[in-house]
Write a structure and sequence with these properties.
The structure holds 3 protein chains of 3 kinds.
Chain A: H1 2-6, H2 12-38, E1 41-42, E2 52-53, H3 57-63, H4 66-97, H5 104-110, H6 113-116, H7 119-130, H8 136-143, H9 160-185, H10 189-197, H11 202-231, H12 234-240, H13 251-260, H14 265-296
Chain B: H1 2-40, H2 61-68, H3 72-103, H4 109-118, H5 128-138, H6 144-168, H7 173-180, H8 185-214, H9 217-222, H10 230-235, H11 245-276
Chain C: H1 2-22, E1 31-37, H2 47-56, E2 60-66, H3 69-81, E3 88-91, H4 96-101, H5 109-113, H6 123-129, E4 138-145, E5 147-151, H7 152-158, H8 166-176, H9 200-207, E6 213-215, E7 221-222, H10 226-240, H11 254-263, E8 268-271, H12 276-283, E9 287-290, E10 301-310, H13 317-327, H14 330-340, H15 351-357, H16 359-367, E11 371-372, H17 380-396, H18 402-414
Helix pairs in contact in C: 11-12, 15-16, 17-18
Classes of the chains: A mainly alpha, B mainly alpha, C alpha/beta.
Chain lengths: 299, 281, 417
C-alpha cells in the first residue's frame, strides 16, 4: 500500500501532521535556537553590557569543571536507576491489571495516585518521610530492627541520590503501568486463543505473543521516559537542592543552578546543549531500532 | 473434584494476582495516606517528641481553610480548564500526525520524527526567557491559552511518539480491509483505526492531562493574578521561613481526587470501547 | 447525539472561557500598579491594605500578585529580561547589586526627599539598604533580626548560663548534647545548625565575628587569612568534632531546625521573630531568646530585610512610589507586620515599649546595634543561593578542609588567582 503512494508526492501525510509541526515549531523552535546560541556566548543576565560571543569558550571551560563531571556521573546513575526500577514495577503492575477481576477498575485508578500527585507535594512528603529526626521511614526501620538508630538518608552523600531515585520510582512507575496496559489491551484475544489451541504454555504465550506485540509500545515509552527522567529537576531540587555538596547534582539540576542562581545563561545553556547531545546518543540506539522495526512493518 | 479445582485456582489467583497487586497498591498509596494523615494532624502535633502514627485529635480544619481562605476551588477550576484543553488540543493534533507517521512513508519522515524527540531533550527551564518574550509579544501573558500552548510544546512531541507506537501495533491489514470495503482515507482513520487505537489514545490523553495538571515552572512564569493553577497555589504555601504543612498536605490530597475520579470513568469507557471495537485482525 | 454535544461544548464554550480569562477591563484614567509580594502565610491577604490605599488615592489601582518564594527571584529576573516586570516588587537586599547592575531599579532619592514619612523610619535601615553607589533604590518594608533561641528549662536543669561569647557557647552546647534516656544514643543536641540553603546567616554569625571578612574596606578578600580559616574551622568543628548538632545538619533548612526545637531534639538554634509564635505554641515558657554570642572580634547577627523597589520599566513610577511609601508609613506598616510577624521599620510603632514585655522582641531590639548584612556585591546572590550551601555541606561531610572552603569563596568573589 505504501509503495503505491510513493510513486507521486502524496500531500495527505503532510496535511495530517502539519498542525503538530506548526505549533511546535512556532512556539518552541525560537526558544531553543535562542538558548542554543547562548551557549556560544558569555551571557550573564545581570551583566547586560558584557554579553558577547566567545565561540567555544563555555565548552572548553566545562571540560575542566569538576562539578560538571560529577553531574554527568550522577545523571547516568540517575537514569539507569530510575528507569529500570520504574519499568520493572510498571510492567509487573500492567500485567496484573490486565487480568479480569472484580476490583480492577478501582485498582487501575488508584495506581495512578503517585503520578497525579503534584511534584511539590511528592518531593516534600518524601523528604518528610526520610527525615533523619522524625521520619516515618526511619521509625519503621528502627521498629523492625533493621536500623539501630535514625539515619540521615538525605544528608548523607552516599545515600542521598539513591533515596531520591526511590522517590522518583514511586512517582513514575504508573506511567509505565498505564502505557504498557494500553499496549496489552490492543493485543487481539484471537492470538491467545489460537495459541491455546496449539497448546502453548503461559510462558510461551508471554514470550511469543505478549512481548513481540508490545515491542513498539515498550520501546517508545522507554525512550520517552528516559528523556523525561534525564530532564527531571523539580523533585531533586526540592528534596536536596543538589546537595549535600554535589551528591545529587545531575545535569539539569546543575544547569538550573547555573542559570537561576548564578544567572549565567551562557554556561547553563552549554550544560543543556551537552545534556541534549548525551541523551541523543543514549536514545539513538533505541530510535534506530524503533525505526527498523517499523520498516519491517508492524507484526 | 471440580469444586476442589476451583478453590485451587482461586488460591492460585490470590497469590499470583491479589496479593502482589495489593502490595503494589500499598506502595503506591502509602505516601499518599501519610500525606492524608498529616493533613488531619493539628500543626503543633507534628513536632511531638514521641512518634505517632495517627494524631490524637484529628481535625478537618485544614480542608475547611483550604476552600474558605485560599480559594482552592478556583485553583482546581483553573487546573481543570488548562489540563482538559491541553489534552483535547494535544489529541486532536497528534492523532492525525502519528497516524501519518505510522502509516505513510514520505520524504522527511525520519527527520521530522526525530526532531520531535530532540526538541524535547532540552531542559525547559532554559527556555523560559524566550518563551516569556514570545507570550508577551503575542499578548497572551496570564491567560489560559498561554499555558495551553506552552504545555502543548512538550506534550505534542511525546504524544506523537507514543501514539505512533500504538498505531504501529495495529495490523495494517485492518486499513487495507477497510479501504477495500469502500472507506476513504479519512473514514478509515475515523471509523476503523480510531476505535481499535482507543486504549492507546486514552493512555496518551491521560499522560497529557496529568502532565498539564502538575506543571509548575511554566505556570509560575507565564501566569499572574488571573490564573492560578494547583501547583502554584501549593507552592505559595511554602514560604521563606515557614511551610504551611496542614494546608499543603490537605491541598495535595485534594488535588489527586478529581484526576482519580475522572480516570475511573475513562478506564471503564476504555474497556467498553475495546469490546465494541472490532479487533479481528 | 450526545457525543456531538460534547464536541460543541469543548469547541465553543471552553474557548470562550479561556479567552475571558485574559480580558482586562480598564478605564483609561485609572492608573494601575502591578505589585508582586510574597508572604509566608498563604492565608493572609493584602486586600485590606489595598482597599485603604485605593480609598486614599482615587485613580490608582493596585494589582497585587502573591508570588511563591521559591520561584520569586527567578520570576522577577525572567520578567525583567523578558521586558514585562511589575511596577513594584518586594526585593531582598542581596538581589540589589545585580538589579542595579541591570539598571532595573529606579533611584528613589528625589521621591524620598519629598516624602514626609522618611524620618519615622529607623536611620539604621536607611543606612543598611543604601546601595554602594550612594543612591537609595529600596523602600524599607520590614526588618528581621536573627537571635538565639534556647530552651530555658534545659538550661535551668543543667544549671547553665546563657552564653555571651563563642567559647561559652561551645561549652554550653557540649553540655546540652546528651543522652537523656540512657539508651546510648544522643537524644538532645546542643545547637541546631542550618546547613542547607539559607544557613549562611548562622555561618556568618560565628565566622564574620571572629576575624573573617568577605570583602575588606580596601576591597580585598578577607576570607583566607589564618584567622578567618581558624574561625571557619571552629564552625565546621561544631558538627564534625564536637557533634553538638544533629547528623542531619548538612541538609537541614529552616523547617528542620524549627521542628527540631519544637520536638526537643535541639536545645538552641538561631532564628527570628517569625517563628516565635509557633515555638511558644508548642513549648510555652520553656523557650526563650537572647542575642547571639560574640565572636573573638565582636558580635555580628544577620539583618534580614524586606524592601520594595520600583522597577525602572514602570510607566507609573509616581503611583508606584506612592504605594511603597504607603506601606512604609507607621499605621500601614504595623498592619503589614501583623501578617508577616516581623518588626516594623517605623520608630513610632513603639516596639521598644513592647520589647519590655516580650522576650523575643527584646532579643531582636538588643541585637539591632550589631545587625549587619552581607556586602553589596553582585555575586552575593549566587553565594547565598548555591555556592555557600554546596561548599558548606562538603566541608561538613569532610570532603574539603576549612582552608579549601574559604579559597572557594574567595575565588567566587575575586576570581581565580
Amino acid at each position: 500500500m505504501s509503495q503505491e503512494y510513493r510513486k507521486r508526492v502524496d500531500l495527505f501525510p503532510y496535511f495530517l501532521l502539519s498542525p503538530a509541526l506548526i505549533i511546535t515549531l512556532l512556539v518552541i523552535f525560537y526558544p531553543i535556537i535562542r538558548t542554543f546560541t547562548y551557549s556560544f556566548m558569555q551571557y550573564i543576565l545581570w551583566k547586560p553590557t558584557e554579553i558577547k560571543f566567545i565561540g567555544l569558550g563555555n565548552y572548553l571551560k566545562i571540560l575542566e569543571d569538576p562539578v560538571f563531571w560529577i553531574s554527568v556521573q550522577n545523571t547516568f546513575i540517575w537514569i539507569v536507576g530510575v528507569i529500570s526500577l520504574q519499568l520493572l514495577l510498571g510492567f509487573g503492575t500492567a500485567l496484573l491489571l490486565n487480568q479480569k477481576f472484580f476490583w480492577r477498575g478501582i485498582a487501575r485508578s488508584l495506581v495512578l495516585i503517585p503520578w497525579v500527585t503534584p511534584s511539590v507535594i511528592t518531593a516534600l512528603m518524601w523528604r518528610w518521610m526520610y527525615d533523619g529526626n522524625r521520619g516515618v521511614i526511619n521509625d519503621l526501620l528502627v521498629r523492625a530492627g533493621i536500623l539501630s538508630s535514625y539515619f540521615p538518608w538525605l544528608a548523607n552523600d552516599k545515600t542521598a541520590l539513591y533515596a531520591i531515585i526511590l522517590a522518583l520510582m514511586w512517582q513514575g512507575f504508573p506511567f509505565f503501568a498505564i502505557m504498557i496496559l494500553a499496549g496489552l489491551q490492543a493485543i487481539p484475544d484471537t492470538l491467545y486463543e489460537a495459541a491455546e489451541v496449539d497448546g502453548a504454555s503461559m510462558v510461551q504465550k508471554f514470550t511469543r505473543i505478549t512481548l513481540p506485540m508490545l515491542v513498539p509500545v515498550l520501546f517508545t515509552s522507554l525512550m520517552l521516559r528516559i528523556i523525561w527522567v534525564a530532564n527531571s529537576l523539580d523533585i531533586i531540587y526540592i528534596m536536596t537542592g543538589g546537595g549535600p555538596g554535589y551528591a545529587t547534582h545531575t545535569l539539569p539540576v546543575y544547569s538550573y543552578i547555573r542559570a537561576y542562581k548564578g544567572m549565567d545563561f551562557g554556561y547553563a545553556s552549554t550544560i543543556a546543549v551537552i545534556l541534549t547531545l548525551l541523551i541523543t546518543l543514549f536514545v539513538s540506539i533505541y530510535v534506530r531500532k524503533v525505526l527498523r522495526t517499523e520498516d519491517r512493518g508492524a507484526v | 473434584m471440580r469444586k476442589r479445582k476451583k478453590t485451587h485456582r482461586f488460591l492460585q489467583r490470590v497469590f499470583t494476582l491479589h496479593i502482589p497487586l495489593l502490595l503494589i497498591l500499598g506502595f503506591a498509596l502509602a505516601p499518599y495516606v501519610w500525606t492524608f494523615i498529616t493533613s488531619l494532624t493539628p500543626e503543633d502535633d507534628l513536632y511531638l517528641s514521641e512518634f505517632r502514627y495517627f494524631p490524637a485529635h484529628p481535625t478537618g480544619t485544614n480542608y475547611q481553610r483550604l476552600f474558605s481562605r485560599i480559594d482552592y476551588g478556583r485553583n482546581i477550576q483553573d487546573s481543570l480548564i488548562v489540563a482538559v484543553c491541553t489534552m483535547l488540543l494535544g489529541l486532536c493534533i497528534t492523532v492525525p500526525a502519528s497516524y501519518s507517521f505510522s502509516r505513510y512513508r514520505f520524504i522527511g519522515r525520519t527527520v521530522l520524527l526525530a526532531q520531535f524527540l530532540v526538541i524535547n531533550m532540552f531542559p525547559v527551564v532554559l527556555l523560559l526567557v524566550p518563551l516569556f518574550i514570545l507570550m508577551r509579544v503575542l499578548g497572551l501573558m496570564d491567560t489560559y491559552l498561554s499555558l495551553i500552548i506552552a504545555y502543548s510544546t512538550f506534550t505534542i512531541p511525546f504524544s506523537t511518539w507514543m501514539l505512533t507506537g500504538f498505531f504501529n501495533a495495529i495490523p495494517k491489514e485492518l486499513d487495507e480491509a477497510a479501504q477495500i470495503d469502500g472507506c476513504n482515507r479519512f473514514t478509515t482513520l475515523l471509523r476503523v483505526v480510531l476505535p481499535v487505537a482507543l486504549p492507546g489514545i486514552s493512555a496518551t490523553g491521560i499522560y497529557i492531562f496529568i502532565t498539564a495538571w502538575n506543571e509548575f515552572i511554566y505556570a509560575a512564569i507565564l501566569t499572574g493574578s488571573n490564573i492560578r493553577t494547583i501547583p502554584i497555589a501549593l507552592q505559595n504555601m511554602i514560604g521563606e521561613f515557614k511551610i504551611a504543612w496542614g494546608l499543603l498536605t490537605a491541598g495535595g490530597v485534594v488535588s489527586a481526587v478529581p484526576v482519580i475520579v475522572l480516570f475511573f470513568f475513562i478506564q471503564r469507557q476504555l474497556i467498553h470501547g475495546m469490546t465494541a471495537g472490532a479487533v479481528k485482525g | 447525539m450526545k457525543r456531538w454535544m460534547m464536541v460543541l461544548f469543548f469547541g465553543l464554550v471552553l474557548p470562550a472561557l479561556i479567552f475571558s480569562g485574559g480580558a482586562k477591563e480598564q478605564k483609561a484614567e485609572v492608573k494601575s500598579v502591578r505589585f508582586w509580594y510574597h508572604f509566608d502565610n498563604p492565608e493572609t491577604s493584602v486586600k485590606p491594605l489595598i482597599e485603604k490605599f485605593e480609598r486614599e488615592n482615587p485613580g490608582v489601582k493596585i494589582q497585587a500578585e502573591m508570588v511563591a518564594w521559591d520561584a520569586y527571584f527567578q520570576k522577577l529576573m525572567t520578567s525583567i529580561a523578558g521586558g514585562n516586570p511589575p511596577d513594584v516588587s518586594q526585593i531582598k537586599l542581596w538581589w540589589q547589586p545585580q538589579l542595579v547592575e541591570m539598571k532595573a531599579l529606579t533611584p528613589l532619592d528625589d521621591y524620598i526627599a519629598k516624602w514626609p514619612g522618611r524620618t519615622d523610619v529607623f536611620e539604621k535601615i536607611w543606612e543598611l539598604t543604601r546601595h554602594t553607589d550612594g543612591k537609595q533604590y529600596l523602600m524599607p518594608l520590614q526588618m528581621v533580626i536573627l537571635y538565639l533561641y534556647y530552651r530555658a528549662d534545659m538550661f535551668k536543669e543543667l544549671g547553665l548560663k546563657v552564653p555571651s561569647t563563642r567559647d561559652e557557647f561551645l561549652d554550653v552546647a557540649k553540655k546540652l548534647t546528651r543522652d537523656t534516656n540512657g539508651d546510648g544514643q544522643i537524644d538532645v543536641y546542643g545547637f541546631g545548625i542550618r546547613g542547607g540553603r539559607g544557613g549562611h546567616d548562622f555561618w556568618a554569625t560565628f565566622v564574620l565575628s571572629s576575624g573573617a571578612e568577605i570583602i575588606t574596606k580596601e576591597g580585598k578578600s578577607g576570607l583566607t587569612t589564618p584567622e578567618a580559616i581558624a574561625a571557619n574551622q571552629w564552625y565546621i568543628d561544631l558538627f564534625r568534632v564536637h557533634k553538638v548538632s544533629p547528623p542531619t545538619t548538612p541538609t537541614d533548612g529552616f523547617n528542620e531546625i524549627i521542628a527540631n526545637m519544637k520536638s526537643g531534639k535541639t536545645a538552641m538554634t538561631i532564628h527570628h521573630l517569625g517563628s516565635a509564635k509557633g515555638l511558644v505554641d508548642v513549648l510555652g515558657d520553656r523557650i526563650s531568646a537572647a542575642p547571639v554570642p560574640r565572636g573573638t572580634k565582636g558580635a555580628w547577627t544577620s539583618f534580614g530585610d524586606e524592601e520594595n523597589g520600583v522597577l525602572a520599566a514602570s510607566k507609573v513610577k509616581d503611583e508606584a512610589f506612592k504605594w511603597c511609601a504607603f506601606l512604609a508609613t507607621a499605621e500601614n506598616n504595623a498592619l503589614w507586620q501583623k501578617s508577616s510577624g516581623q518588626i516594623s521599620i517605623n520608630k513610632s510603632n513603639g516596639q521598644t515599649k513592647e520589647a519590655q514585655e516580650n522576650r523575643f522582641m527584646k532579643a531582636s531590639v538588643e541585637s539591632t546595634p550589631f545587625a549587619g548584612v552581607l556586602p553589596a556585591h553582585p555575586k552575593v546572590a549566587e553565594f547565598v543561593e548555591s555556592v555557600w550551601p554546596a561548599t558548606m555541606q562538603r566541608a561538613f561531610l569532610g570532603q574539603i578542609t576549612s582552608e579549601q572552603m574559604m579559597k572557594i569563596f574567595e575565588e567566587h568573589f575575586f576570581g581565580k588567582k
